[in-house]
Each structure stands twice: as structure tokens, then as C-alpha cells.
Amino acid sequence: MEAIIKVENLDLFYGNNQALKNISIDVEKNKVTALIGPSGCGKSTFLRTINRMNDLIDNVKITGSILFEGKDIYKDYDVIKLRKKIGMVFQKPNPFPMSVYDNVAYGPKTHGIKNKKQLDEIVEKSLKGAALWDEVKDRLNKSGIGLSGGQQQRLCIARTLAVEPDVILMDEPTSALDPISTLKIEDLIGKLKENYTVIIVTHNMQQAGRISDSTAFFLTGEIVENGPTEELFYKPKDKRTEDYITGRFG
Ligand SMILES: Nc1ncnc2c1ncn2[C@@H]1O[C@H](COP(=O)(O)OP(=O)(O)OP(=O)(O)O)[C@@H](O)[C@H]1O
């Protein structure tokens, strides 16, 4: 297996409150890794450490290391460059209040691409990559906010793809969506892993089972167990994992 991200002995404190405890995990390239666990166990906090989103929060202290392609993201990386390589999709679709086209072209433009033909190509490729092109190709100049919730979330995925990341972090990307839109995003995630590495926080264990190759089970800031999704679901090594996946708590 090829690990694109290696997390070693990661601790994170919000003030005096330790939210992540000695997290170590290898994330495999071109796979989907799901992060599961009860509310407040640190899944989102962990996801945010991977593209340094916690840097924006006061009073956060992080020790240990996260290596991305062998480089320490807290020491050897410029944060803007890092976020270009490691993109993020949030729980609630958050398109910018601008046209569908401009939503997708925004990232490449900020990274210096000005040529209209090149931008057109990026927009089309990204919308196709997010399985949205056919639905919006005739309304590229209409507002992104006018799309349905599921389309908005795919637009946000297209926006992320437009800057050609290697890794896509997703924080409960379907929790605000109806079942049909959810299945579309799940199908899409299955396709995305051909070209990208996906790490997804989900509350929905069926979803983790359906879409992920590996799963990490978090509990009170620690990873109790992680490994191939089937093993974790059907042959958990730790009693706490078994209790959680069989619905005994959480
Ligand atoms: N900005 C913050 N400042 C202080 N404490 C925080 C902050 N964000 C999260 N926490 C705390 O860190 C712990 C982990 O929270 P986090 O949101 O990472 O958990 P989670 O597993 O993603 O939960 P959920 O599934 O409910 O989203 C919680 O105790 C939470 O209260």
C-alpha cells in the first residue's frame, strides 16, 4: 500500500481541552477513508488538521506530525499551497454568490490562470468530474445559489476539483441532502478515488460501509481501531468498536 498521508502521534488541544490524543494513521492513496464515531469524538477536528484549517482558531496547540507525500505539513509547507493540494468540502453546500461558471473558475483565477479558453476547459472538466455538467451546461451564467441542494454540493466538489488537488476532505458532505442527492454524491465519491484520495467524516455507518475502503473509529479523541472497512465492520478487534457499530452506543 502507498500512504499519501502519514499521521504520527498527533495531539491537539483547544486551550486546556485535549480533543485529539496520540493519533497515528496512514491514509492510502486513491482510496476512500471514512472517519466514524459518536458526536464530539474529534472527527471534524482531525479532518481539519489535515489541511490546517485549525490554524484559524485561537488557542489551538498541535504536537506530533502529519506527513503529506513525505513532507511535514506544519513545518515544510506553505498553507496556501497545502490547501491547493488538499481541498475541503463542507457539511452544508456553500457556493459563492456568483454564477456556476465563476464558482468553479474562482480557484484557478486566484492561482493566476487568466486565459478564457483555459478557464472554460477547467470549468467543463471540473463540472464533468463532479457529475454536474449535463445538468448545468445550459445555465453556466446563472447563480450557483439557484441550484438544488444536491447540485450545490456537487458544484462545491467541482470548485474543489478545479484547482487539481490530490486529496479531498469531506466533512459529512451529504448530511444536509435528500436520499437521492446523497446516492449521487456517494456514486461520485466512488469515481473520484480513481484520481484522488478521499477522507470523509460521516455519521452514517451504512454510508461508510457503502463507500469506504478503510475506516477509522474515533472515540473521545482517540482512534480505537482502523483498517479495511469490511474487517472493521464484520470482524472488529476492539469491543468498543463492536459496541458502536452494532448500535449499542453513540
Ligand atoms: N473551535 C473549537 N474550540 C474549542 N473546542 C472545540 C472547537 N471545535 C471543537 N471543539 C471540541 O473538540 C471536541 C471534538 O469536536 P469535533 O467537532 O471535532 O467532534 P466530531 O466528532 O466531529 O463531532 P460531530 O460528529 O458532532 O461533528 C469536542 O469536545 C468539541 O467541543
User: What general outline do the C-alpha atoms trace?
Assistant: globular
| CATH fold-level topology | Rossmann fold
Based on CA atoms alone, the radius of gyration comes out at 18 Å
Estimated helix fraction? 25-40%
Write down the overall mean pLDDT. 95
- Low-confidence spans: none
Strand order of the largest sheet: 6-7-8-3-9-10
Number of domains: 1
The rounded distance between the terminal residues' Cα atoms is 32 Å
Tally the helices: what do you get? 10
What fraction of residues sit in β-strands? 25-35%
Function: Part of the ABC transporter complex PstSACB involved in phosphate import. Responsible for energy coupling to the transport system.
Organism: Oxobacter pfennigii
Domain ABC transporter: 5-245
Protein name: Phosphate import ATP-binding protein PstB 3
Describe, in short, the structure shown.
It is built from ten helices and ten strands. By secondary structure, it is an alpha/beta fold.
Detail the topology: elements first, then pairings.
Elements (H helix, E strand, L loop, with lengths): L2 E12 L2 E12 L3 E5 L6 H8 L9 E9 L2 E2 L6 H7 E4 L10 H11 L5 H14 L3 H4 L12 H13 L5 E5 L7 H14 L4 E5 L3 H7 L2 E6 L2 E7 H6 L4 H7 L5
Parallel strand pairs: 3-8, 3-9, 6-7, 7-8
Antiparallel strand pairs: 1-2, 1-4, 4-5, 9-10
